[in-house]
Amino acid sequence: MLTLKANQKNLHRTVCAELKEKVSLQNSEDTAIEKGHGRLEVSEYHVVNTEKIVSEFPDWPKIKTFGVAVSYRATKYGRDSIQYCYYISSANLNSEKFAIAVRSHWGIEKKLDWVLDIAMNENDCQIYRDSVAESLACTRHIGLNMPKIHINRNIADSLILILFIFMYFEVSFFLKPKYL
């Protein structure tokens, strides 16, 4: 499952038009309602047949499902919003399976973003030179997965190993290490 974004202009425009038409014509087969923290959120999940759309986009032959998650959010402060998130998938999904896939996709995304942003300070990284930013992003992901790989080690030892890996990459890219 991938989020369909506007950088694929023609595909995004076509899928949006097709799904908005479907959303306005029928109620969702799968709806989730969440209450809490002073807000009410209703999420609807819609999918469409891909045959018509895929024939127009030969670069995307394996797409089996186009879907949209529509979130209606109302807060006790009167701030209401509607958000449309479009997705493509190579799996053949009905509305129910699509809803499960979207919810699990967001759960993973939120956990990963939190660790990268809070624990690894990724948002404060101001390095944009050449491919160094991409290399540091790969290093962060290695650092996230390293403790999971070294089952024999305890977490403290794994984190020390990760620190040395970060220091190595920083020195390799001629950056001043901030850990020394």
Molecular structure report:
By secondary structure, this protein is an alpha+beta fold. It folds into two domains: 2-93, no CATH class; 120-172, no CATH class. 46% of the residues lie in helices and 22% in strands. It has helices spanning 9-25, 51-54, 95-119, 132-149, 155-172; strands at residues 2-3, 30-36, 39-48, 65-75, 80-89. Strands 1-5-4-3-2 form a five-stranded antiparallel beta sheet. A hairpin with a 2-residue loop joins β2 and β3. α4 (132-149) runs antiparallel to α5. The longest helix is centred in the middle third of the chain and has 25 residues, at 95-119.
Topology:
Layout: E1 2-3, H1 9-25, E2 30-36, E3 39-48, H2 51-54, E4 65-75, E5 80-89, H3 95-119, H4 132-149, H5 155-172
Antiparallel strand pairs: 1-5, 2-3, 3-4, 4-5
Protein name: ISAs1 family transposase
Transmembrane segments: 155-175
Keywords: Membrane, Transmembrane, Transmembrane helix
Largest sheet: 5 strands, antiparallel
Total number of beta strands? 5
Shape: globular
What's the number of structural domains?
2
SSE pattern, N- to C-terminal: EHEEHEEHHH
Distance between the termini: 41 Å
User: Helix/strand/pairing class, anyone?
Assistant: alpha+beta
Mean pLDDT value: 77
Quaternary structure classification: single chain
Number of helical runs? 5
Rg for CA atoms? 21 Å
User: Beta-strand percentage?
Assistant: 15-25%
Residue runs with pLDDT of under 50 for 5 or more positions: none
Percentage of residues in helical conformation? 40-55%
Arrangement of strands in the largest sheet: 1-5-4-3-2
